[in-house]
Amino acid sequence: MAGIRLGEHAARDVLLVRAIESEDAAATVLTGDDRQYATSVALNSTRLGETADRRQTAAFLAQRARLALERLVGRYPALQQAGNLTRWPQFLNWALPLGALVIGLITNAIEGDQLNILAFPLLGMLAWNLAVYVWLLFNCARRLFGGVKRSGAPALINWMLRPASAHLAGHPTLERGVMRFGRDWVAVAAPLTRSRFTRTLHLSAATFALGIVAGMFARARYTAKYTAGWAGTWAGAEAEIAALLKVVLGPASALTGISLPTVERLRELRGSGENAGDWLILWMVTAAAFVILPRLLLALASLVRSAHLKLRLAIPHDFYVRRVLRDAVGRARTVRIVPYSFDLAAQSRNKLSRLLVDALGEKTTIEIEPSIAYGKEDEWIEAQAGKLADADQIIVLFNLASTPEAENHGELVDRLRQQLNVQSELMVFVDDSSFMRKLRGQASAPRRLEERLLAWRTVLAPCEIDPIRVSLDSTDEDGAARALEQALLRSTSVK
C-alpha cells in the first residue's frame, strides 16, 4: 500500500503517537480529550477535507502528532528521551572518519624507516576495498532480483530504548508503546539509517587510505634517508612479485610514466633499498584512484540519498491513519464481511456488526454478504469482480472449527488480495464460537486452540495476513469490542 511521505522529525512523532494510541485502546494515557484536542487544532490548521491529497494528510498527521506529544511529554517526560534515542548519533559523522585517519597514520609507524613495497597496510588496503566493491555490486544485483536485506537493527533499537522504558516501568501501556515505536521506527527509517551509515563508512575508508599515504609522506619528509625495498619469505618469487606489482601499480605507472621494476631489479631490492620517491608517487596515485576518489564519490552519493530520504520517510497509509482521518472529518466507512463455508445466525450477525461499529466508529456501514459455498471461490470472485474495490475494508470470516486448506481458504484470500484496489483493506477473521463449544470442559482445550490458530496462521502466511480471532458467543461486548480494536491496530503494525 502506498505510503504518506513525512520529514524525519514528523515521521518520528507520528510513529510514537501511533504506537501509544495503538497500545492505549482504553484511552487512559492519551485521553479522549487529548485526542480530540490534537485532532481539532490540527484540523483547523490544515483544513483537511474529504478529498485531501497525501500532502495535506501528511501535514495533518504531523501537526496532530506534535500536539498530542506536547501533552504526553508534559505528563511523561521520559517520552522525550525515547524520541531522542532513535536519532542518528551525529558524532559518528566525524568520529569514525577521524579515527580511521589516525589509524591510517599509525600503521606507518610499524614499518620503520623503510617503505616495504609489499607491506600489509598498502596491499591490505587495496584488497579490502576490492572486496567491498565486489560486495556492493553483489548487493545491487540482489536488489535488482528482489533479494531481501535483513538487519539486526530491531534488537539494537530495543537496547537503546531501555533507559526510556525503565522510566516508564510504572506505566505498562507507555512501556509497550515505546517498544512498539522502536520496532516501527526501525522499519520506516531503515533506508535512511543504512544510507547514513554507508556514507560514514565510505568516508572513513577514504580517510584511512589518506592517513596511510600521509604517513608515508611524513616519514619521507622527516626521515634522513627514506628508502623502499622488500623483505620476507618470497625469495625466488621475484617474477610473481613483478606480476603482482604490474596489476596493483600498473595503472599508476601508466599515468605517471614511472616504470615498474624488472625481475632483476626486484632481486637487488630484496633486503636492501633505493630512494622511495618514485614508490611514494606510485602508491599515492594508486590509493587516490582506487580508494580515496571512489570512496568519496560513494560517500557523496549516500549523502545525497540521505538528504532525500530525510525529507521523505514513508508512513503506511494503513488502518491507523484511516481511523484518525475518519474521526477527524467524519468520513463514512464501508466494511463488507464475507463468510466462507458457514452461515451466520442472526444473533451472530448483529453481534459482529455491533463489535465493528464500536471498534471502527459510528459512521461505519457494515454489509454482511451471503456465505460463499465451499469450493465456489472462483465463481464468487468472478461475480464480484466489479464490486471488490467499492468497500474501504473487506473482512473474510472463517470458522475456526474448519481445518484450514491452502487450496481453498488460502487461495480465496490470495485471489482477493490480488483483486482489491490499493486503497482497500483486506483482513481475515476466524470465529472461535463453535470450536470453543466443542472443547468446553476439556483439559487439552488451550493446547488444541493454539494448534488450530497456528494452522490458520501457517495457511495464510503466504498471503502476509495474520488472522484475527473473534468470539461471537462472548457476552462481554464492551470487552470484545476493545479487544477487536486492539487486534485491528496490531494487525497493521509497520512492516
Summarize the structure.
The protein is an alpha/beta fold and 495 residues long.
Radius of gyration: 32 Å
**Strand content range:** 5-15%
Number of domains: 2
Question: What is the percent of helical residues?
Answer: 55-70%
Strand order of the largest sheet: 7-6-8-9-10
User: Element order, helices and strands?
Assistant: EHHHHHEHHHHEHHEHEHEHEHEHEHHEH
SS content category: alpha/beta
| Oligomeric category | single chain
Poorly predicted parts: none
Question: Any overview of this molecule?
Answer:
- The chain has helices spanning 8-23, 32-46, 54-75, 78-85, 92-107, 120-144, 153-160, 162-167, 172-222, 238-256, 263-269, 277-310, 319-329, 346-360, 377-384, 406-419, 433-439, 445-460, 477-490; strands at 3-6, 114-116, 227-229, 274-275, 313-316, 333-339, 364-368, 393-399, 425-431, 468-470.
- The chain starts with a strand and ends in a 5-residue tail after the last helix.
- The strands form three sheets. Strands 7-6-8-9-10 form a five-stranded parallel sheet, sandwiched between helices. A three-stranded mixed sheet has the order 2-3-4, with helices on one face. A two-stranded antiparallel sheet has the order 1-5.
- The protein is 63% helix and 9% strand.
- It is of the alpha/beta class.
- It is built from 19 helices and ten strands.
- It folds into two domains: 1-330, no CATH class; 332-490, Rossmann fold, CATH 3.40.50.
